[in-house]
Amino acid sequence: MHGPLQTQVALSVDDAAARRAFTFWALQLVIAAAYFWAQASGEAIFASVPWRKAETMWGIVTLAHLVLTSTIRALAKRHKWLALPPRPLFWRVFAATLLAAALTFGLTLAISQHIYGQIVPPILATFYAKLSLNNQLFNSFIGILLIYAAWVCGYFAIVIQRQRTRDELRRVQLSEALQAAELRLLKSQLNPHFLFNALNGVRALIADEPTKAQDAITQLARTLRYTLAAGDAELVTLAREMEMVDDYLALESLRLAERLRVVREIEPAAAEARIPVMLLQMLVENAIKHGIAPLRQGGTLRIAARVVARMLLIQVQNPCAPTQEAPPRAQGVGLKNASERLRLLFGDAASLELDLATPERAAATVRLPL
Amino acid sequence: MRALIVDDEPLARRELRRLLAGFPRIQIAGEASDVEEARERIESLAPELVFLDVQMPGGTGFDLLARLDTLPRVIFTTAYDHYAVKAFEVSALDYLLKPIEPERLAAALAKIPTPSAAPVAHGPLEQLFVRDGPRCWFVPLREVSLFTAEGNYVRLSWGKTRPLFGRSLSALEAKLDPRRFFRANRQQIVNLDFIEAVDLGEGGRLHLQLRDGPEVEVSRRQARLFRARSTV
Description:
The structure holds two protein chains of two kinds.
Chain A: H1 2-46, H2 51-78, H3 86-116, H4 122-127, H5 133-186, H6 192-208, H7 210-229, E1 235-237, H8 238-256, E2 260-266, H9 268-271, E3 274-276, H10 279-292, E4 299-308, E5 311-319, H11 327-346, E6 351-355, E7 361-369
Parallel strand pairs in A: 2-4
Antiparallel strand pairs in A: 1-3, 4-5, 5-7, 6-7
Helix pairs in contact in A: 1-2, 2-3, 3-5, 5-11, 6-7, 6-8, 7-8, 8-10, 10-11
Chain B: E1 2-6, H1 10-20, E2 27-32, H2 35-45, E3 49-53, E4 55-56, E5 59-60, H3 61-67, E6 73-78, H4 82-86, E7 94-97, H5 102-110, E8 127-132, E9 135-140, E10 146-150, E11 153-157, E12 164-165, H6 169-175, E13 181-183, E14 188-191, E15 195-200, E16 206-210, E17 215-218, H7 220-231
Parallel strand pairs in B: 1-2, 1-3, 3-6, 6-7
Antiparallel strand pairs in B: 4-5, 8-9, 10-11, 10-14, 11-12, 13-14, 15-16, 16-17
């Protein structure tokens, strides 16, 4: 799932880049054509100049607009202006706009002088007929500046908006991929410590108690098979999970001997309920690792499950050392993973609580919707 | 060689006992199943070698070592947390992964020299087990140039490492080899092997320049002792 998703994202990035370039140039050319046509025909009609001259005049100016706006775009892309904070971005855009407007203004005057022998193009001279030459020039410059300002505002508004959408999309895709990976990861795997201790125990049994050793190997095989298969299914019946937990407990009894005592109180109705795979195993493992194994005299592990008001209630209780300092941190990882998994699978409908309020006793309670 | 097996799992003890039966050199003096029991056994049986599990009820193998006055040789036995053992900056010890392979056990035992006729337990201290925060070291005492009191603890100057040892300077002094270590003043004990130069400072005070470290001033009272032993 991970691979294809990444490829898809990469492909869509390439496609999107091509699509964006196409959109940009299409828009540029349409706007340029409209501008050219408005200016040239306006000048030919209202200032009564030959079409050929107007065409040359505004053709060159339009080309300058195209080149300069594209340059601004290229600069913004190359130097990653969009990654900048608002203020530096603003000043760069402002400076680029001013510079482009000044260049275009100079060019317009020069071409007008060359073609018509007057510094202000005829259409503008007609338009601003009542103004002094200086004011005509000033107004012409402001007109050009406004055209660039409009272009820049339009361009950056679109680009920024699109970047936001893209970031948002990427975030969503990322969190989806993360969720899938998390779910895989959160299914607690068998603790290697347990595995090697169990193997060590089996090795000790082989010579003296071969039957016991054979049983232990069978239990170990079943436990391993269940763990390996846990990747395939999210949910299993409590009864199925309990079979695995029984094997697991039998193996733990090998090493803990009489220090581990187990009480099971599973209601028949609860046994058929479906629970996240490896969840009960994790709770039991935690209870042994942090509760019973550190106690010299060991203790009783109590596993209870019942159905209350259309909810499945699982409780794992264990004694713990009275002086145990800050157990939540040590137990934290497994339990945090488990509750994160419950959240991903059931949302707010499920819960996992660890009750350490009673001294020398810890109880983990899971509530699941049926 | 007398050995003690420390492991909370009866099966693991049984297995190790069986494996050790193949080594007549090793004589199993006893077993212990937790830290407290192990401490008592080590004090009463004075084994030369301890097979030590890391995770046990009531504390880890490291806790046990930190509580001991005299360190036996230690071989850690562990199912998976060998990284905990590897956390040692200098491993003057061996570790065996469970299930233990007989060949690895033989190799670990081969590294242990046959003890001389003289009893080890009553000689001066050779090495310290030091635990400072999450890190542990077996520190060979002859490599420590200087011991400096810090409150009720002692800072060791050991190469580039400066671990804090959880006993008082006086308690440590009583166990050090007096032929090698000298109490220069109330705060410091120097390793005589590390003295590079002895200078006469202001007011006739003796200053000892250490090879890899600072200058240590010898108190007036101790200066007399120092002169007495240097002239010998």
